[in-house]
Predict the structure.
Amino acid sequence: MLAISKKISQILFPLISGLKGLMVLLVLLLINLSSKAQSGPYHVILERINADLQTLVKDKPLADEITRQLKSLNADGSWADIDYSDAQYDPLKRIKDMATAYIRPSNKLYQNAELYGAIVKSLQNWLDKNPKNKNWWYNDIFYPQAIGQTLILMRNAKTQLPVKLESALIERMIRRLKTGDGANTSDEALHFLYRACLTKNKATLDSAAKYLFEPIAIADGKEGVQADGSYYQHGKQQAIASYGRVFAGNSVNAAFYLRGTEYALPKDQLTILINYLKNTFLKTIRGFFYDFNVRGRGISRKDSLSSGLGVMVAKIKLFDPENAAYWDASVKRTSGLEPASYKITPTHHQFWKSGYTLHLRPAYTFSIQTASSRTLRTERGNNENILGKFLPDGATNIQRSGSEYANLMPVWEWDKIPGTTSRDYPDDGGATVLKDWGIPGTTKFVGGVSDGVYGISCYDLDYDSVQAKKAWFFFDREVLCLGAGIKSNSNENITSTVNQAWMRGGVVSSNGVQKNGKGEIWVMHDSIGYIFPQGGDLEISHKAQSGSWYRINHFQSKTELQHQVFKIWLNHGQHPQNASYQYIVIPGVDAAGLKNYNWSTIQVLKNTAELQAVKHSGLDMLQAVFYKAGTLVASGLSLQVDRPCTVYIKDLSAKSPTLYIADPAQEKANIKVLIKLPGLSKSKTIDCNLPTGAFAGATANFQIKE
Ligand code: CA
């Protein structure tokens, strides 16, 4: 379904082409506002839809295209190149385009008599043929939407469509509405809205408004927006900017069309929608590009990381003027008018329902996707995302400009996805695919702790006969990545991949030269530094890799591509039994800065399969993952927990530090913590009651006082 939805969203909300496009939209919106007072909601809504349908239309190419189509139109109103037994976007998209040109005074085909005849003829032909597609989506969503749009456009024509033809087409739009189906429900409700306004039917408008807004709710555990702000579709699977993008687009359009009328989005639902857009969805875009972790199986489609949200965000501003400054900044940042860092404030989100972590700094975005026994692994299916089986195994998306991975997927080595630990196959693991869709994760200790700015994430990996305890420690300038207990009895070499991105400029490295006598290695590429404090069997490749989109998605082009790729990974060898790794990622640094970078402020206190703990003396914080109940002892402090958990202590040496704690397994309601800290005269026991229900796995915090 997504493939189709993505296409229609491109038809409905064309990509913004810079500032000029935005200005056109704003002018249309203002015209729209001025007519608001004239009559009831039907007229106002129709005018808004009409303006929306014409946003960013380019008259010249549109007229050229239609002139071509007119030449090949048969006398009976059909086109020879269309298979009406399997009609997809055409002919209805073609007819809609003709209606658009016909009603636009700026178009050279405006009020063209031949064009009018062609519109009537081709619509009549559609009625007579009554095409049905094997895919329900065309029949129940696309066809009625496209017919509705054409009729709305033609209401602006000087010569209206024959009344009989219009009524028959409106009749043809009627479908039974399938409720409770998330983005699909709002897609269907949209043509109900069209029909309601065309016929001025209150009952139809009542149900259209109801179902357009139905998906705007917290759907704990079901498909839709979750309590942590993430989005599920196809079961308990993170779908923030895949299906979540369809949800966002439809909901924004509905709120935009109905704003200021008696059908306006109710306040409580408006809050849910705004939170989703502001605190989740828009944060997954860096510069112009999505985080590759939020596009689901769409990662295997060309241009799927491109965002293009200018039109959508301009609409949001009109029904949510309170956050206007935020929306303006988003448009500037994602359209290239301002740099990717523009008005980014440091935040850290641990999405405990979806196994997704998002760490934002002005200089970079760093995210992780994991799977647990509570969620589904990133889906493959429909011959899409064919090689994506390791995507939920701790994939780390590291962006500075945003474009680091854009359209690189055809040539990716798919068993070296950034951040993951896996077997290194000769064929990227493609031959060992057993099952499509709906594969649950295997372990429960997956999640993390967060104070909203800093945090820790952990992933108990057990997939494809590889086990590891992986953890990430998030600070300001850097992210520390630890792996321990790496084990496999398979025959392949086991690797942990640090990154695999577009090659940009040269690679500078210490080349194995020892610094401080510690065997440390550092590497710098594309303004991102990597430090391996304990060295390791490190490999760096910077050369061309080849592949095609078809290789990862059979709906895509077979053209063989070749791109320059920077790839960096650690070898753990064959049959590792207790291997480990440590590396620090420092985004936003040059070679000189990296050479002088003082990583001794970050102290790895422990990196074992039972406990991974780090102290950051610069930020005065301690972060730990206890895979088992136990005690951490380090100079001047001790920390004991009676159950597995993730713990983070802020203001470690102060008189009143803060303890942040969460249970990644989401099973324990209470954890006892015994601490002895430098700023406290005696040890303290803290009885931590943790959140439950939809919030199990979320962070609780406790102020510690003398
Ligand atoms: Ca390989």
In short: The pocket of calcium ion is lined by residues 413, 415, 424-425, 428 (CB under 6 Å). Residues 228 and 403 are 27 Å apart (CA to CA). The longest strand covers residues 561-574. Confidence is low (pLDDT under 50) at residues 1-18, 31-38.
